[in-house]
Amino acid sequence: MDERLFAEPRRRGRRRVVLKLGSRLLTGGGPSLAPERVRMYVDAVAAYPEVETVIVSSGAIAAGYRDLGLSAPPKRVPERQAAAAVGQSLLMREYAEHFTRHGKRVAQVLLTNDCLQDRKRFVNAKNAFAVLSAAGIVPIVNENDTVSVEEIMVGDNDNLAAHTAALVEADLLVLLTDVAGVYDRDPSDPEAKLIEYAATADELRPYCFAKKHRESRGGMQTKLEAAEKAARYGIPTIIASGWDADAIHAIYSGRPVGTRIAASPRPLRAHEHWMAVQKRLTGGIVVDAGALAALRRGSSLLPKGVVEVVGRFRAGDLISIFDAAGVEHARGIAQLGDRDVDRVKGRHSSEIEDILGRPAAEEVVHADKLMRMEER
Question: How open is the CA angle 257-258-261, to the nearest 5 degrees?
Fold first, then answer.
């Protein structure tokens, strides 16, 4: 394998790839799961035992809707959730059957956004992946559609694949789609040319075109969002056609294919990446100009610089740090809850114990648990 396709190795031995397969690929463009296509992808992956693969797979709804007596994949949320509940086991059976022919076992991993937002759950998921890796088991990842509601949905499997790549510390993210990569104009235009390389996902945003297939949740826009997330963690992304297995063979054997998006030259550390990708933070604090200057120098956030408490949070929660105009400048793990911060704001650290009547942390957010937004 040509190591130039990958980031610097994170471990000795095999490279680790997160491979995303969408519904349209797994159905061959039809309404239902096509078992022969699952077999095609499994055979291609299994041909490279030196590469450790984590598969992010769509297809549960396409596999299960007929068992509900439906004639087409459902649109309503309850029916989609029910179809996913039926289809997950059928989808896993296909993967298990085909990987078993190659002497490999599989494990089902269902994630929701709260697994990624809650730090303890994030670490638990990370540890579970590590155990599966040590046992040589192939994880098959999907969003937990059966229980997902808007508040806990990742939303699409492109972004789920990027989060998974961070969880497993992948060396490469591969997003297979129904086009050969990103083009410089609408791919239906005969003059369109494939863009083979981009230093950042942002360079490619002018070349996003509307997706045309309703059965797919994502589109090129979500793939670029995923590539941007992966890049922050130091993981390059390849977007390529998955209509056949040629792209897998090319990528795993080190040949260029599709559009390659480079990793960030200054990747975030694991905890910084987790902070950067979180959504819907429930709490934050407003700080003064002196505190902002100190944060830029890499210092901890002390109560002296806190002006106002926003929302509710507990010690251990991820919070936003704003300026007076409401611009978010940093994120960090709070060492005090919102009520305690409100009591000690503007005061010196030496006064905290007397004010609270108990021993407490001297910093609102310690420098080791803080991420400045310019690092995103």
Answer: 110
